[in-house]
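For this section, I looked closely at a protein sequence along with its fold in token form, which I now present.
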Amino acid sequence: DMPVEGSILTQGAVTAVIERTIITSGDLTANTAAGYFVISAVVGGPFTAAAATLLGGTVTLSAAEQQITILPGGEYNFSIGNFSAQESTRRIYGADGVNDYFEFDGEIYVPIVVPGATVKPSFTQVHANHMFLGISASLIHSALGNPYNFEVINGAGEIGTGGRITGVLIQPGNQGTQALMVFARNSTWILYGSSAADWNFVNYNVGIGAWEGTVQNLFDAFALDDRGVTMMS
């Protein structure tokens, strides 16, 4: 089973509170799951690369715990989402182009690693029950309903744009027409669909894009381009 948040991780005399469990690959039921914990209140010294116990079973730790650090120099973009439909699970997701993208609930900061990515995400957007990330010229999305997992086998994927992404913006719509607008400096695309089973990535406008940090939804989608302020309709 998924380790319970708030339960105690124990290794000999060392204990800590499990705040989040991030599974990056494998399957819990098959005992192949791999990932990491976000922990707090470490008591008794550092953990080591060995077995540890927790409520419901045993895990193998690969190394001692590491302090979460945030490098300076990033430019933050945020998105608010709720992947569990509970009042307590509404959280902020953010990216800054310098650090791993993250989840924050006002107390617990969770860095989330995108396996294989050599560039840090610059944009986050919760859309169609996926987490979308702008990483250079790629639009990366998580598994359905899971902002922690980026395995293709679970429905995650990557869409190439051909231009460095400068903004992402959800467009008004309903279940049949939900759309995500994706901007580069000189092009604009729209992603239609609800999952990897039916994504349709359409080039909306060649030659018109957006300066980074300028896209906004007012009564319509607006962006600042070389021509000035552009209303996308």
Residues 187 and 209 are 5 Å apart (CA to CA).
